[in-house]
From TrEMBL:
Residues 31-68, 71-154 form the 6-phosphofructo-2-kinase domain. GO terms for molecular function: 6-phosphofructo-2-kinase activity; ATP binding; fructose-2,6-bisphosphate 2-phosphatase activity. This is 6-phosphofructo-2-kinase/fructose-2,6-bisphosphatase 2. Keywords: ATP-binding, Kinase, Membrane, Nucleotide-binding, Transferase, Transmembrane, Transmembrane helix. Pfam families: 6PF2K. The chain crosses the membrane at residues 187-209. SUPFAM superfamilies: P-loop containing nucleoside triphosphate hydrolases. GO terms for cellular component: cytosol. GO terms for biological process: fructose 2,6-bisphosphate metabolic process; fructose metabolic process.
């Protein structure tokens, strides 16, 4: 006989959860997987490497794993091996635009008993324009026969249609709206825990200044 939740409530008992389905407690010192989320040209890669450098400077062992769109099974295997070598922070630099792609990582972290932090990036219109100009200039030096500005514009339009914004229900979340202007740069955090995640929050709160030549 199948017992409904109402039946359990009436009997004054609670339905039991199978041990294999129950969430495993994550020790405070467990490794951390950081999933970078956002559309192209939002400053994701620059910030990911900035965070990694800061954490390494603080004595942690952090590495940025670059993926084209979202983490794959190969990425997860690389991260598992990375953590087995006593490293403790893996930053996955990709777009991860859909909830399904992020759920893959959340499930991986839950099964492996790793901490998981989402960081979603957006930016002001001015910042986006400057990022696109910088990217176009970089790729133009590699291949001048391609209309890189058009390609980036089409890529943004394509991926914008796919993008599903992060929800706090997905797990600990930091959202960053990038701008060099400290008055416009903003950051929010939900569910951030522990010294490492707090340190990441502090790094991201500081606007990233683009490289310029001073005369």
């Amino acid at each position: 006989m199948n017992c409904s939740a109402d039946t359990h409530a009436a009997a004054g008992t609670r339905p039991t959860v199978k041990p294999e389905l129950a969430a495993k407690p994550c020790p405070i010192g467990a490794p951390l997987v950081v999933t970078i989320v956002g559309l192209p040209c939002r400053g994701k890669s620059l910030a990911a490497h900035k965070v990694a450098r800061h954490l390494n400077w603080r004595g942690h062992s952090a590495k940025v794993f670059n993926v084209e769109s979202a983490a794959t099974a190969d990425t997860l295997r690389e991260i598992s091996l990375f953590f087995k070598e006593s490293n403790n922070v893996a930053i996955i630099d990709g777009m991860h635009l859909t909830r399904q792609s992020r759920q893959l990582l959340a499930t991986f972290c839950s099964e492996k008993v790793f901490h998981h932090l989402l960081i979603e990036f957006s930016c002001t219109d001015k910042c986006l324009r400057e990022n696109i100009d910088d990217t176009v200039a970089f790729y133009h030096n590699l291949d001048q026969n391609v209309d890189w500005e058009r390609r980036l514009r089409e890529s943004n339009e394509l991926h914008s249609a796919m993008f599903e914004a992060c929800s706090p229900l997905e797990g600990p979340l930091i959202t960053v709206n990038n701008s060099e202007d400290a008055r416009l740069h903003s950051i929010t955090a939900r569910g951030v825990l522990g010294a490492i995640q707090t340190a990441i929050l502090g790094v991201l709160a500081i606007p990233v200044i683009r490289h310029r030549t001073f005369y």
